[in-house]
UniProtKB/TrEMBL annotation:
Gene Ontology process terms (BP): L-aspartate catabolic process
GO molecular function, one term: pyridoxal phosphate binding
Any one cellular-component term (Gene Ontology): mitochondrion
Aminotransferase class I/classII large domain ranges (all copies): 61-428
Record-listed E.C. numbers: 2.6.1.1
Note: In eukaryotes there are cytoplasmic, mitochondrial and chloroplastic isozymes.
Protein name: Aspartate aminotransferase
Organism, as annotated: Chrysodeixis includens (Soybean looper)
Cofactor(s) for this UniProt protein: pyridoxal 5'-phosphate
Pfam family, one: Aminotran_1_2
Length: 434
């Protein structure tokens, strides 16, 4: 009888070996195979590493200021009331689960572009925006930089602010896109280094891509003022550089989605063809839904159509088409006037809680008798504050006070509550005064 195995003379391999012997042999072949043996270990994710250490800490005093997600005053994840309402409305519609169009639903895409540029802005009126749904802000950045990598006619060089979100250089590296840094944060003033930034941008080669955080800069919490944005826009135009905005926190900085879009709108008004990555992770609390958008502004509708067609080709080859749940929620909120009003209230409430925590933290550190200046805590804006703690002080505050944050001294103000603010302030005073 043949079992379908290769015959060795008159005897089959199956007859020579029992099933368990074969399993042992196959296991040995697999474990000794070296196909992937040369893969080096990747660097661990810093934020997740902090979370793991925090979870293992049994101290009742522990505080996690590393996580980049909004928390309520009880330190709990927060689902926005507008999002809950949108979910109910979607549920009542008994929708199907068919594939979305490759670029996402038209109504979703239009709503994203209007939110960023303004309802009656020129690109919206002229339809010169190629906007596609993406896998949150990260997906938008990746798709946008990949597009630049493929179609950019000028020097392929990205200029990132120093410092910047750790994933920006990482994405460039993945795409083999060379990058440089322009001065951004001034450790002396703990504010924006406007002169340094302008000088560096003036010497960037024509056609360089300039990455700008639209608002609530991560990790520093330092944003340029309106006049400074105007100055950056002027330099970027005169030097023929290309602005790519990362807008991951629209509404989170000032509490107003329009004010937080001011930088993008200044550039558009000045005639720039910006690229824009949007995320709804923070301002709608849709972290795990992974919903965002990428816009490439073009000079005319015909170019926008061609750009759109190429973005679709890219999407088709990566994940075919986008997820529908998160984008339905966003669309529901942005296209239903009553719900949008509720959302604007929700965003403001989150931003206001952060602003209040900044004030309380500063007052408590100053009240504890600190001799240092702490105005930067309230001058900075958005979810993050660059405290100015040194790596050694960060080590101490973690070991002695069970407070977890990144080595660069960045804290997520969203992790501070009315219950822990006094303790955090006292601990910061302790490690900065002795
Ligand atoms: C500056 C910046 N850009 C983009 C993102 C992207 O986030 P997500 O992919 O969750 O939308 C983040 C998230 O922390 C960020 O801080």
């Amino acid at each position: 009888m043949s079992l379908g195995f290769v015959k060795f003379g008159a005897t089959t391999a199956a007859q020579l070996m029992s099933r368990s012997q074969m399993d042992v042999m196959n296991h040995a072949v697999r474990t000794q195979s070296m196909w992937w043996g040369s893969v080096p270990m990747g660097a661990p994710d810093t934020i997740l590493g902090i979370r793991d250490k925090y979870n293992k800490d049994s101290s009742p005093k522990k505080v996690n200021l590393g996580v980049g997600a909004y928390r309520d005053d009880d330190g709990k994840p927060f689902v926005l009331p507008s999002v809950r309402k949108a979910e109910e409305l979607i549920y009542q519609k008994c929708m199907n689960h068919e594939y979305a169009p490759i670029a996402g639903e038209v109504a979703f895409r239009e709503a994203c572009a209007k939110l960023a540029f303004g309802d009656c802005s020129q690109p919206i009126v002229d339809k010169t925006n190629a906007t596609v749904q993406t896998l949150s802000g990260t997906g938008a950045l990746r798709l946008g930089l990949d597009f630049i990598n493929r179609y950019w006619q000028k020097k392929r060089e990205v200029w990132l602010p120093n410092p910047t979100w750790f994933n920006h250089p990482q994405i460039c590296d993945m795409l083999c896109l060379p990058y440089k840094k322009y001065r951004y944060y001034d450790p002396k003033t703990k504010g924006f280094d406007v002169n340094g930034a302008c000088e560096d941008l003036c010497r960037a080669p024509e056609g360089s891509v300039i990455l700008l955080h639209a608002c609530a800069h991560n990790p520093t919490g330092v944003d340029p003022k309106k006049e400074e944005w105007e100055c950056l826009s002027k330099i970027i135009k005169e030097k023929k550089l290309f602005p790519f905005f990362d807008m991951a926190y629209q509404g989170f900085a000032t509490g107003s989605v329009d004010r937080d879009a001011q930088a993008v709108r200044i550039f558009v008004k000045d005639g720039h063809q910006v690229m824009l990555a949007q995320s709804f992770a923070k301002n709608m609390g849709l972290y795990g839904e992974r919903v965002g958008a990428l816009t490439v502004l073009c000079g005319d509708k015909c170019t926008a159509d061609k750009v759109m067609s190429q973005l679709k080709v890219s999407i088709r080859t990566i994940y075919s088409n986008p997820a529908i749940n998160g984008s339905r929620i966003v669309k529901e909120i942005l296209t239903n006037a009553e719900l949008k009003q509720q959302w604007l209230v929700d965003v403001k409430a989150m931003a206001d809680r952060i602003i209040t925590m900044r004030k309380m933290l500063r007052e408590a550190i100053e009240g504890a008798g600190s001799k240092h200046k702490w105005n930067h805590i309230t001058d900075q804006i958005g979810m993050f504050c660059y405290t100015g703690l040194t790596p050694a002080q960060v080590d101490r505050i973690t070991k002695e006070c069970h407070i977890y944050l990144t080595k660069d001294g960045r804290i997520s103000v969203a992790g501070i509550t009315t219950k822990n603010v006094a303790y955090v302030a006292e601990s910061i005073h302790k490690v900065t005064s002795s």
